[in-house]
Amino acid sequence: MSKKETFGTVISNKMNKTITVIVKHPIAHKKYGKIINRTNRYYVDDPDNKCNIGDRVKIQETRPLSKNKRWKIIELIKN
Prior knowledge:
One of the primary rRNA binding proteins, it binds specifically to the 5'-end of 16S ribosomal RNA. The chain is mainly beta. It has strands at residues 5-12, 18-28, 35-45, 56-61, 71-77. It has a single domain (5-66), classed as CATH 2.40.50.140. A 5-stranded mixed barrel has the order 1-2-3-5-4.
């Protein structure tokens, strides 16, 4: 079974070895059809503290690493 992977943008890197990533999902409104951006916020493991705010990253689901951290960074796409 493959693990979920997605792309997101770093919005916070203030924690040690952890970043906060926001992922936007464009969906159509049920009644009117207008495209709406739904967002999810994930805590991502960043063991080298190499990410900065605004970076695009590829993240992958993993086992629970802490109370809230369930994702790890796969690839850093600099902005």
